[in-house]
Structures are given as structure tokens and as C-alpha cells.
Amino acid sequence: MLLKKMVVKAAQRGVGLVEVLVALLVLAIGVLGYAGMQLSALKGAEQANNRAQATLIAQDALERLQVNPNLPAYIAAAWPTTPAAVGSAPNAYATCTGVGAGCSSAQMVSWDVNQLSWMAGNLLPEGLVAIQSCPNSGLNCVVVSWDGMKPSECVKAGGEVNTDTDSFCAVIEVLR
């Protein structure tokens, strides 16, 4: 009987170091998982913001087409192939600004190309914009791209819009 009491007194009381380390490991894995979810959420929010900005730029281009219905001039225009420098001022025609200022259709096309390209380059990472013929569809497209994509990569050869997961494009078809 005396031996049995000694064994009871020698039993461990409280939490051991191994249990604390295991608990810390489980906690660390949980914190890393939470941090990964935060990064994923931030990336998703940034992509949503870029898509919203691109859609607004494309809508602005459509409204400019309504003011100046010379669609062939927009398609033939020399749309920039490199993004505008961030923070730079857009090129302007003095005759196209101000109250009562007159401006020809060609000047208006050039003004719109400069303004839209400037907005795409300053509101989107590596943003570009173009109005082009959509292949094999008989339609025209307002294309806004970002993150290194070119507007020409946004519409596939068959006329279908590039919807791949690595596609950074907003395309609005124009029927005129």
C-alpha cells in the first residue's frame, strides 16, 4: 500500500512542454491559413476594382462614340501600344477644350484616343484601350486591357472574347 501512494505522488500535474508546443503549432497553422485567406481576398478585391475601372473606361468610350459617330476614324486611329506614363498629363488640342470651342471630327477622334489612353494608363496597371473590328462577327469592339495584356489578345481569331482565367480584359461590342 505504501508503494501505491508513492506512485500517485510522482504523477505529473499541469501541462507539459510537449503539449504547449503542439498547441502553438496548431495555432501557428491556423494563423498562416488566415493570412493566406486575407491575401486571397485582397487580390480578389484588386481584380474586381480593375474590372470596374475597365468597364467605366469602355463605357466612356461608347459615350464618346455617340457624340462623334465617325466610327471608322476610331478604328483606324493609332491607339497606343504602350501604357501612358502614370501621372503624366494627357495630350490636348486647344481647339477641343473650353466653352464654345469648335473641333473637327478628326480632332475629336485624336482627343478621345489621347484621353481614353491616358485614363487606361493611369487608372489600371499597364492599362491600354482600343476600338477595333471584332473578327468574324461584323461588330466592333471597345477593348480595355491591363496587367500586360494587349487589346489585340482580348478578342480571339473567331471573334469570341478571351475569357481565360489569366485574361485581363473588358470587351464591349458595338453594333453600328
UniProtKB/TrEMBL annotation:
The chain crosses the membrane at residues 20-42. Residues 37-113 form the Type IV pilin Tt1218-like domain. It holds the Pfam family N_methyl. InterPro entries: N_methyl_site, Pilus_4_PilV, Tt1218-like_dom. Keywords: Membrane, Transmembrane, Transmembrane helix. This is Type IV pilin Tt1218-like domain-containing protein. It comes from Alcanivorax jadensis T9.
